[in-house]
Amino acid sequence: MNKIEIIPLGGIGEFGMNCMGIRYADEMIIVDAGMGFPEETPFGVDISIPNFDFLEEYRDDLTAIILTHGHEDHIGALSYILRKFNLPVYSSRFTLALTEKRLGEFNMLDDVLLHRVEANDIITIGNFKVEFIHASHSLVECFSLAIHTPIGTIIHTGDYKIDDTPVIGKPYDLETLGRIGDEGVLALLCDSTNATVPGRTPSEMAVIPALEEIFGETEGRLFIATFSSSLHRLQIVFNIAHKFGRKVCVIGRSMQKNVEIAEEQGLLKIPFGTMIDLGGSRALDNDEICYLVTGSQGASTFKGMEIQKGDTVVLSARIIPGNEKGISRMIGHLYKRGANIIEERRRLVHVSGHASQGDIKIMVETAKPKFVIPIHGEYRMLFRQKEFIKNHVGNYTDDDIILIENGNVLEIDEYAARVVAKHDLHKNFVDEESMDVIEYDVVRERKKLAYGGAISLVVTVNKQTHTLAGDPQITFQGVAGIDPLNGFAAEARAAVSHAIKDMKPEQIADRTVFKENLRIHLKRYIQKELSSKPVIVTTIVEI
Ligand SMILES: [Zn+2]
Q1: Burial class of 532 by CB neighbour count within 10 A (0 to 12, 13 to 18, 19+)
Q2: 177-to-48, 165, 180, 389 alpha-carbon distances in Å
Q3: Distance from the CA of 325 to the center of ligand 1, in angstroms?
Q4: In 3D, which of 312, 341, 349 has the Cα closest to residue 212?
Q5: CA 67 to centroid of ligand 1, rounded, Å
Q6: What is the per-residue pLDDT for 297?
Q7: Distance (Å, whole) CA 524 – CA 496
C-alpha cells in the first residue's frame, strides 16, 4: 500500500520561504515556492530561496506547482524552481497576475504554463485531486487546499485567518471545509505564524474606527505606510479618504502595480476621482492629501517625498521579524523631522492576516483531521500550536500532532504518521540587485571573511632548485591584532620562511601539497598567536 509523503523544503522552523512537496505513488506536487528574508542580513544577501537542487532526485515524479496565494514568501522563488523544473502552475487569477509580473521581469512568461483556478474548483493531477477552498487572509483570492489521494485527504491551510467580515471578498469558506471534514481528513498542515496569540485574530474591518479617527483629527499631510499586498487595507484607506475629502496618491512601483492589477480585476473599488498622481498631489493643500506608501525602507523619505514637520505617518503594517532595528531607526528619523507617528501599539491601525489560537481551534474542529502537522513558523510557534491543540481542542495527543523540520520526509497512511528520513537542506541566497543565485559556499566564505578577515601569502620559489627565492610576502586585511608597527607581519614572515626551510625538496616540488602545507602552517601560527581564523589565500610564484 502506498503512503503519502510530506516533504517541506522551507517554511518550517523559520519565517518565510514556504515550500512543500507532497508525494504519493511516485507523483509529487509542490505547494508554494516562496522566498525568505534572513533575519540578520547575511553578508550582502537579503533573500533566501529553498534548495531546489534537492528535488533532482524526484525529477521524474514532479507534476505541478500549486500556489496558495500571492505573498512573496509563497511565490517569490517561483522563477528559480521553474528554471530547474518546467512544471504547470495552478492558482487564482490575482495570484497568477502577481506571478506574471514577476516572471515577466525574468522574460520567462513564454515558457510557463499558468492555469487559473477558482474557489471550489477540483482539478485532477495524476493521483491527486486538488480542491481549492476560499481562505481569508491579509491578501485576496487565497486558498486552503484539500489534496485528495486514494488513501486519504490532506488539508494545507496556506496562510489564513477566519475572518467573518473581510473588506474584499467572502469570509473563510468554513462550509466547504466542514463538508470535507465530515468526509474524513487524514492530516491538516496548519499555519502556525500566530499560534502564540490568544483569542481570535481581528477582522480586516477592525482598523476602520482608528483610521477614521485619524483622518478626522489630522490637519497636515497624512502618510499611510502599509504592504503593497494588503489589499483590504488599501480599500479601507481609499474609502475613508473619500469620506473625509482627501485624495489618495499611491507612491512606489510595487504599490502602484498592485493597485492597478487589483482595480483591473474588480477587486479594488476606488471611489471616483479619489486617486491622484504625484504631480496633482503637490497642488493640493496639506489637509486634502493622503499618501499611500510602503514604509519599510528604514529612511525618512518615501520615494522622494520628504517627511516634514506637521506630517502624520501611520504605520499600518506588521514589522517583519528581523526588520525591527531598521524600522526603529526609521521611526527615529521621522520623529527628528517633526512628524507625528502612529504605530500599531498605540492605536488599532493594523491587524494580522494569520490565525490566532481561536482561529486554529475553529480550523481543527471543522476539518477534524486524524493528524495535525504545524507548518509556517519558527519552532517556538509550531510547538505552541501543538500544545494549544493538545490542551484546548478535542482528543489530540503527542502521537497525533507531529512536529517536522525542513528536509524531513514524513510518511503518512491511515494508521500512522512518522518521519522516515531527514535531509540536511541548506538554503540558497539571492543577490537582490541582480536577482542571481549566490551559492551557499560563497555566503559561508563571506561570513568567514567578515569574522576573521583575510591573509594573503605570496611565496616565490626557484623552478629548478625548489628553494625559496626572496622573502615570503604577507598582507593582512581586517585581521584583528595586526598593526603595522607591532612587528607581527615580520614575525609571521619569518615563521613561514622557517617552515619552508624545514620542508623536503619533494614536498615543495609538488605545488599542490606545498600550497596546502603553507596554508595549514600559517593557519596554526595565526591561531596560536592571535586566536583568530582568517581566510588564508596562498599564491606560489615560480621563477
Ligand atoms: Zn501570506
Answers
A1: middle
A2: 33, 18, 5, 18
A3: 23
A4: 349
A5: 11
A6: 47
A7: 11
**What are the φ and ψ backbone dihedral angles of 357, each rounded to 5 degrees?**
-60, -40
Inter-residue contact 220 to 287 (CB < 8 Å): yes
State how far the Cα of 349 lies from the Cα of 347, in Å rounded to an integer. Answer: 6
* One-character DSSP codes across 277-342: -HHHHHTS-GGGEEEEE---SSSSEETTEE--TT-EEEE-SPPPTT-HHHHHHHHHHHHHTT-EEE
pLDDT computed for residue 286 by the predictor: 94
Q: How far is ligand 1, taken at its centre, from the CA of residue 60, in Å?
A: 30
Cα–Cα dist 343/339, whole Å: 13
Element (H, E) at 147: strand 142-149
Distance (Å) from CA 335 to ligand 1 centroid: 31
**pLDDT confidence of residue 299:** 46
- Domains, the chain, ordered by start: 4-200+352-433 (3.60.15.10), 204-343 (3.40.50.10710), 441-542 (3.10.20.580)
Identify the bridge partners of residue 539 per DSSP, sorted by sequence position: 458
Could you report the average pLDDT of every consecutive run of 10 residues in the chain (543 residues)?
Answer: 94 92 97 85 78 95 98 95 97 96 90 96 97 97 98 97 96 98 98 96 96 95 91 96 96 90 96 94 94 64 75 85 72 86 86 96 98 96 97 93 97 94 88 77 79 87 83 85 76 86 83 87 86 86 86
pLDDT of residue 526: 86
Identity of residue 208: I
pLDDT for res 298: 41
Cα 75 to middle of ligand 1, angstroms:
10
Ligand 1 mean position, distance from CA 66 (Å): 14
